[in-house]
Design brief:
4 helices; alpha+beta; 3-stranded antiparallel beta sheet; 220 residues; Lipocalin; elongated; 11 strands
């Protein structure tokens, strides 16, 4: 065993991987679990002597690995370890964080008749709709654009990963009736590429005078 500070004895599954890439700016070299990763290169963290899946789960929750991922100095390029311990429903959902940094596998939700990929995006979309936009787990310096500009009745509200507006997170489109009350609200959640729509929520609203009396929500 090495002297990395993670020298616990365990049996590793030969097929498990957790590969990260150094994506830091200005050619910076980073260290994870005290092992260096050159800029632009990858390392399978589970190949590091003494590092177990439990160590990775802990580091993803509050360790140096999470910091590197949150700051964009590293990104997950391949992972197949089981991460079911992570909270998927709270406002600080680790599921959303893991998805935002490149984790695809190991995030399955059991006990649901809904296919896993659909369940995840619909669950994420519900949280986005109820909270009015992205929250912790999507990174910092997120940018919101409201169109038409300066209109009291906006028809499009979109959240982006940055002010460059290259990648969408979630988008809201609004249709109004003659009294300028919203009657249809469509939310669209986007994949990590920022362009592919992965789930849509549509609200149909009914009024009695100026008061909303019912709302029907459907997903696709």
């Amino acid at each position: 065993m090495s002297n990395t500070g993670y020298d616990t004895f365990f049996v590793k599954k030969s097929t498990t991987k957790f590969v990260v890439m150094n994506t830091a700016g200005q050619g910076k070299r980073i260290r994870i679990f005290q092992y260096p990763i050159l800029n632009g290169e990858t390392r399978d963290l589970l190949a590091i002597p003494g590092v177990s899946e439990a160590d990775l789960r802990h580091a993803l929750l509050k360790g140096n690995l999470r910091i590197k991922l949150e700051t964009g100095e590293a990104r997950v390029v391949e992972s197949n370890i089981d991460l079911l311990q992570f909270d998927i429903t709270g406002p600080d959902s680790q599921l959303l964080f893991l998805q935002s940094v490149g984790v695809v596998d190991g995030l399955q939700v059991t006990g649901s008749s809904t296919p896993d990929s659909s369940h995840k995006v619909l669950l994420q979309l519900v949280h986005l709709v109820e909270n009015g936009g992205p929250y912790d787990g999507f990174g910092n310096n997120l940018y919101r654009e409201i169109l038409p500009v300066s209109s009291p009745f906006p028809t499009n509200i979109c959240w982006y990963y940055s002010s460059a507006k290259l990648k969408k997170i979630v988008e809201k489109n609004i249709t109004y009736n003659a009294s300028n009350f919203p009657v249809t609200i469509v939310w669209t959640a986007y994949d990590l590429d920022g362009t592919t729509a992965v789930a849509t929520s549509t609200d149909q609203i009914t009024y009695s005078g100026a008061f909303e009396i019912s709302r029907v929500r459907s997903f696709s």
